[in-house]
Amino acid sequence: MKNIGQLMKQAQQMQQKMADMQQKMEQTEIIGASGAGLVQVTINGKSEMRSLKIDPSLVDPQEIDVLEDLIVAAFNDAKSKLESQMSEEMGKITGGMNIPGMKLPF
What we know:
The protein is an alpha+beta fold. Helices cover 54% and strands 17% of the residues.
């Protein structure tokens, strides 16, 4: 029975570490870019867009479709970076183990 108690204690500690990591990641900001940095999107750890920066040289009414594509690409770049960072943080907590039901919302 002692081993089960230790296992439960470890599970609770891991749960707390995960909650702490989620809170830390929610405050993290990730910048994604496209068009060689002409479009930048900043998102938080919940994949919410916080800011958008567009180089004035891109603002051409005839090229709106290009600008829209660059915005989407910058957002996807930021989200990909966020997912990598969250996976890395998760690996630190779980020691690289894939634990069912321990997915983060992103």
